[in-house]
Design goal:
about 230 residues, 2 domains, mainly alpha
């Protein structure tokens, strides 16, 4: 006997908890619920949500008839409407869009809505938002990959520039070595000219034309090389 009483009490509490969804949300619950119940032909007197829920539970316990709907159907319908009202309240800027979907797509949306216990409108929005989030994640990933590619290209360009500079440095070193050799040769030739002229002056000999022309040629050749070196390094 006590078991039957316990089961009966648990069952009653379970039925009363079916209105628990009305205690959550952001909209004016009392105002919304009164208007909704009035549309269903149910008039309540309480001013607070807890009192209205108690009235509804009392009607259920007394098995008050609702016309075509059963209490279970009413609660199920009320819950969906309440969820929709709260969702709309949290998203004030909303627009209606008319779209045509295939029967397969509609069935998938209905299954998704049923499995998540939400309205079809909310199901469509969640599916769209999830896909947009997925798209933006892919977009950010693509941008990150592009940034990496740009950095890699910069590294390749720097390596190429470095290689080019190394080549130019080697060329310059070769030119400098060549110039150093030219300078050494000029020193030798100038030293030769100086000694030749000193010797002739010391011996007080006249310079023959061929010898003079040879000295003159060497002199101008040295001057020309000096000028070339100055042009290169200027």
């Amino acid at each position: 006997m006590s078991t039957d009483i316990t089961n009966s009490g648990s069952s009653r509490r379970g039925r009363e908890n079916q209105f628990k969804f009305l205690t959550s949300g952001t909209i004016n619950k009392t105002e919304w619920l009164k208007k909704y119940l009035l549309k269903q032909g149910i008039l309540v007197n309480s001013l607070y949500i807890s009192g209205i829920i108690e009235e509804l539970n009392h009607m259920r316990r007394s098995q008050q008839l609702l016309g075509e709907l059963t209490w279970e159907e009413l609660i199920k319908k009320m819950k969906k409407s309440y969820q929709t009202a709260n969702y709309r309240a949290s998203k004030p800027t909303r627009r209606t869009v008319a779209i045509t979907l295939s029967a397969e797509c509609i069935n998938s949306i209905e299954k998704f809505a049923k499995s998540n216990k939400i309205t079809k409108n909310l199901a469509v929005e969640e599916l769209i938002n999830d896909n947009f989030n997925l798209y933006f994640e892919k977009y950010k990933k693509l941008k990150h990959q592009e940034k990496i590619a740009r950095e890699q290209n910069k590294s390749i360009e720097l390596i190429e520039i470095k290689g080019t500079l190394k080549g130019e440095i080697k060329k310059l070193e070769s030119v400098i070595k060549y110039k150093d050799k030219s300078i050494e040769l000029m020193k030798i030739e100038l030293d030769f000219l100086f000694k030749k002229l000193t010797s002739l002056a010391y011996e007080k000999k006249d310079i023959e034309l061929d010898e003079f022309l040879e000295i003159q040629e060497k002199y101008f050749d040295c001057i020309s090389r000096v000028n070339d070196s100055c042009k290169y390094f200027s």
